[in-house]
Design goal:
The protein has 337 residues and is α/β, with parallel strands linked by helices. Helix content is 34%, strand content 23%. The chain has two domains: 120 residues, 2-Layer Sandwich (Nucleotidyltransferase, domain 5); 193 residues, Hexokinase, domain 1. Helix 3 packs across helix 11 and helix 5 crosses helix 6.
């Protein structure tokens, strides 16, 4: 079996899979609050004990981690954890363990997602020999690329979420100034994430929040978007408008930089919860506003990933490939259209 994990800033998903290709078959999984455990090894031990799993039946593992990975180890960006593949291998007697950036892991799921697991924002005209871009806003902002190489999609990680935020409108300029004054530099992640929604909320409200939302509440991002969708507060409505437009613009930047003619995928926990706002037209308008390349942008498929376990699935896909002969190509397929 494959032990797979999607280790996020808020929650961690652990699962066991049979190494079936192209899409591993899940046997069991659980979701854990990440900070309920001091480290990954203690969480894995709790998972295996709870599921009564024979540890000898697991021979490999792959984990997607929210942070930059160097030599199979990573310190999480938003959590005081360090994940080291060698430590996990030694602790559980595993033959092979790999640590990937979380969005790189999610990228491995894209070619095996089913049609029902994505929502199409823009059908476009996909070029199957083209590249794919992936970005996901949640606790942070993750970015990955899938390059078309000899008929295969080869994922590569990125820390582009920590690149500079580029303002395009007067509202975004006001946000940029506020972020710069508070943090010294405005990152894209400080806009496109759960905490980013709170940052926008701070600027968009010229008076008290009509929905009575406390920005310091851990559930504030969800409450703000809910109030916006229900139109209970003008400031919250404006907050979501700024977020959606900035999200579309950044997705377009990534698609343009990647030449993502095979598609752009929007992952993460926020997008499925705000689909009505994403389908309003503002997201795609900002996505396509890349003169002189509007026609190319309009031809790129844009899809929202609805499968909340895409990162876990992608880690399992990579785990299955750990023992794949080098001359096979059976784990590759065309992404959902």
């Amino acid at each position: 079996m494959i032990l797979a994990g999607d280790i996020g800033g808020t929650n961690t998903r652990l699962g066991l899979f049979d190494p079936v290709r192209p899409r591993p078959r899940r046997r069991t999984f659980r979701v854990f609050p990440t900070l309920d455990f001091p480290d990954l090894t203690s969480m894995i031990a709790a998972f295996l004990d709870a599921e009564a799993i024979d540890r000898g039946a697991i021979d490999r593992a792959c984990f997607g981690v929210a942070g930059p990975v160097v030599e199979d180890a990573a310190t999480l960006t938003n959590v005081p954890w360090r994940v080291d593949g060698r430590e996990v291998a030694n602790a559980f007697g595993l033959a092979r363990v790999r640590v990937l950036n979380d969005l790189e892991a999610m990228a491995y799921s894209v070619p095996v997602l089913e049609d029902a697991e994505v929502y199409t924002l823009q059908k476009g005209t996909p070029i199957r020999s083209g590249n794919i871009s992936l970005l996901a806003a949640g606790t942070g902002l993750g970015i990955a690329l899938l390059h078309q190489v000899d008929g295969r999609f080869v994922p590569s990680p990125s820390e582009g979420g920590h690149a500079d935020f580029s303002a395009r409108t007067d509202r975004e300029v006001a946000l940029l100034r506020d972020l710069t004054a508070r943090f010294g530099r405005a990152e894209v992640e400080q806009v496109l994430s759960g905490p980013g929604i709170v940052n926008i909320h701070r600027v968009a409200h010229r008076a008290a929040c009509a929905a009575g939302i406390d920005p310091g509440d851990p559930d504030a991002p969800a409450e703000i978007t809910r109030a916006a969708l229900e139109r209970r507060c003008d400031g919250c409505v404006e907050t979501l408008e700024i977020f959606v437009e900035a999200y579309g613009a950044e997705a377009g930047n990534l698609a343009l930089g990647t030449v993502a003619t095979a598609g752009t995928y929007i992952g993460g926990g926020i997008a499925p919860k705000i689909l009505p706002a994403l389908t309003s037209g503002a997201f795609l308008k900002a996505f396509c506003a890349k003169a002189p390349f509007e026609q190319m942008m309009e031809s790129m498929p844009v899809k929202v990933i609805l499968n909340a376990d895409a990162g876990l699935l992608g880690a399992a896909v990579f785990g299955a490939d750990l023992c794949r002969p080098p001359d096979t190509n059976d784990s590759e397929r065309t992404p959902a259209t």
